[in-house]
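Hi support team,

I submitted a single chain yesterday and got back a structure, but I'm not sure I'm reading the token output correctly. Could someone confirm the output below corresponds to the sequence I sent? I've pasted both exactly as they appear in my results page.

Thanks,
R.
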Amino acid sequence: MSHVAAVPSGRPPGTQPFEPLQGGRRLAATMALALAAFMNILDLTIANVSVPTIAGAMGVSATQGTWIVTSYAVSEAIMLPLTGWFAARLGQRRMFMTATLAFTTASLACGLSPNFAMLLTGRVIQGAVGAAMIPLAQAMLLSIYPPAKRGLAMGIFVMTTVAAPIVGPMAGGWITDHLSWHWIFLVNLPVGALCLLLVWGLLGRFESARRRPPVDLVGIALLALGVGCLQILLDKGNELDWFSSPFIVALAVIAGIALAVFVAWTLTSRHPVVELHLFARRNYAVGVTCMAITSVAFFGTNVVVPLWLQTQLGYTAEWAGRTMAFGGMLAIVMGPLLGANIHRLDARAAATFGLVMFALFAYLSSRFPPNVDFWTLATTRLLLGAGISCLFLPLTVIYLSGLTAEQTASAAGLGNFMRNLGSSFGTSIMVSLWSHRTEQYAGQLAEHVANHNPAATAYLNQLNEIGFSPTAALAYLQHNVIAPQASLLATNAVLLTSAVLALTLIGLVWWARPPFSAGDAAH
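Hi R., thanks for writing in. Yes, this is the structure output for that exact sequence:
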């Protein structure tokens, strides 16, 4: 009787609240939760470079093949804001284990898919169930660390979220080239199994409090419709030439109306599915907004630079991935180090340093010559690693500061949704900017040739002297001078845009107010 009475209201019998773990148990639990988050984020990017191979193997067009990425992103975007609602009903640990098991099973289905329809179905399930893994891993990590070491927990977590998007394309390229595209999904099986075993063995007796509010079907439907249409718009906008496409226009109208009604409905609902009132907290609004805009710049450059490397400098997907990986190396080292000492720093100052370093990286990268070598590209990205590791962690600490354990899952889910939305906007906007600027600069350079610019005329004359016909000389100039120069100038424009975005966020960061300590209200 006394044991039952000791169980807190809303908590399953036989369980107890999360509490800090010690020594090896805490290290093993940290590895399990960080691995789960890493696996989930990795799966969003690892398939990107393999889309042509998978499309060819499945007998579909390259355009249809891109739905391998889009389907995952759409289902994850819809479900991320609902993480807190599901965790409140099921409990954080149970929800995490259910999501990890379903994600691992869906990965097996993807790897063994005999046709494209089954592969797409598996990807949709992966995104939908995997959405909860990241914010719940974040919330549970905070719970198993004592208050003085929660910064270290967040440093380890942020390390995985920064490294995974960088490792993903490189790992996908290597697996596709040396193994088979099936292993892109099958590698999740041992990782998922290890995570489940460790979480069950180490955290099996813990659970968060549970409650069962009424199901807001209207809110869920509006969220799914609005976010789904918005994500498809962002993924397909550049491919379909944006608003010249009736399909994109229709998606924009539906998304705009659905999301506007969703916000109005949720703010007046007694049992909202998404805790939008969190944005009324100054630090949450500042941290999440900065996180979303930073993601626009970070993910935008992380997509455009490999495109430039592969289309103009002759890099393979694997070598482009190796170049990008240098940005993640420093983040892996600095993330936990900064996290262990974040309580000694002003999070706003740390974030400002990160923004300045990111802007410096982008500016220096925009000064590269057309024949820039691998080591210059790679070592410059160390600045990016320093910037990002000193940026995402302080922003996370800012937006989670002062929240209770029950609020953390909802706050992390909504925060990760905004980060993903920023990455989608960044990818779409920056790739579109890069494409349009490449065409614009190519036209301007061609005009110099047509207007008999002395340098262009002298270059054509040299080609004529070594045996090129006038037509062949013009074609050679277009392919070997104009196109590479236009692409380089467009890449520089993207990098400078990202630098300006980073610098403009400095003022907003300082609008946040201390104290900054993630999870202090959790106990």
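A quick pointer for reading it: The chain is about 75% helix and 0% strand. Let us know if anything else looks off.

Best,
Support desk
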